[in-house]
Amino acid sequence: MVDSTLSRPGRPAVPDDYDSPLTELAAMAVQNHELYTAYVTAGFTEPQAMQLLIAIVTAGIGGGQ
Q1: In 3-state terms, what secondary structure has residue 10?
Q2: Comparing C-alpha atoms, which of 17, 55, 49, 46 is closest to residue 6?
Q3: Which pLDDT value is given to residue 43?
Q4: CA distances from 58 to 34, 46, 61 (A)
Q5: Cβ of 49: how many Cβ atoms within 10 Å?
Q6: Which of 14, 21, 49, 61 could disulfide-link to 39, CB 3.0 to 4.6 Å?
Q7: Distance (Å, rounded) from C-alpha 34 to C-alpha 53?
Q8: pLDDT tens profile 2-51
Q9: By three-state DSSP, how is residue 32 classified?
């Protein structure tokens, strides 16, 4: 039996206050690693991939003006 306070039409019953196992900062780190890995897979050298990632992060925090 499912608690009716948790069920919503068309959606599985889940608590409304679900806490993600990743913090926002940890999720950003995962995304940065995936981007770095994608650059290396695409053929960039590891130093080139890191420089591209640094440029993106720097521009994202307003330092790339």
Answers
A1: coil
A2: 17
A3: 98
A4: 17, 18, 5
A5: 19
A6: 49
A7: 10
A8: 454 555 566 666 666 667 788 999 999 999 999 999 999 999 999 999 99
A9: helix
